[in-house]
Amino acid sequence: MEIRKITEFAKREKKIDTAAIEKHIRGILVALGDDPGREGLIDTPKRVAKMYEEVFEGMCYSNEEIAEMFDVTFEDDLDVEQGSNDFVLLKDIEIFSYCEHHLALMYNMKVAVAYIPTEKVIGLSKIVRVAEMAGKRLQLQERIGMDIAEIIGMITESEDVAVIIEGEHSCISARGIRKPGTKTLTTTLKGRFNEPELMGKLMMMYRG
Q1: Domain range spanning residue 139?
Q2: Residue 29 and residue 24: Cα distance in Å, rounded?
Q3: Is the entire prediction scored with pTM above 0.85?
Q4: Which residues have a catalytic role annotated?
Q5: CB atoms within 10 A of CB 208
Q6: Do 196 and 180 belong together in one domain?
Q7: Which of 119, 135, 182, 186 lies most in the core, judged by the most C-beta atoms within 10 Å?
Q8: Numbered residues of the known binding site for Zn(2+)
Q9: pLDDT per residue over 85-116, tens digit each?
Q10: Distance from first CA to last CA of the chain, Å, rounded?
Q11: The GTP cyclohydrolase I domain covers which part of the protein (predicted)?
């Protein structure tokens, strides 16, 4: 089922223009004062284009398409009472992304995703895949959390979703102010996760 879905998306996905990327990377090398024809750089434009095709894969899909791609749920495993505050939490999901302001790497990123099941329970590995795919775009850390929350909500049909992300940004650690080790923490809280009691429980489990 999952293999068939991914194959169908591969057939209709928007393609990243690797030829154009190669051309422009070659131009950047020239602009930097280097020679793209020298031995160490001959294949660099092609390598960068191939890397971009991989690390920006998420840009080929909308949130709706990612939700459809990883919509693998189970309807009979849990009997969740109406209004229950019991939730599923998956944390320490490691991802990376690239900042849209400097095309700089966002790294050492750990994602936590929580949701209150209604009638649908998503497979845990699909939560990881959703987080990875949301990161494979030119992004802001805040938007990654919002994208993940929206996609998980679409798949589970739950209005109660929370995403916590902690990460480091090379636009802070490697340029400008140059402060290695500085971490950014963002939260996206939807539905009942905005209520103090549930928010407190979430943060206690997240830090535990």
Answers
A1: 61-207
A2: 9
A3: yes
A4: 99-102, 141, 169, 171
A5: 7
A6: yes
A7: 135
A8: 99, 102, 171
A9: 899 999 999 999 999 999 999 999 999 999 99
A10: 36
A11: 21-200
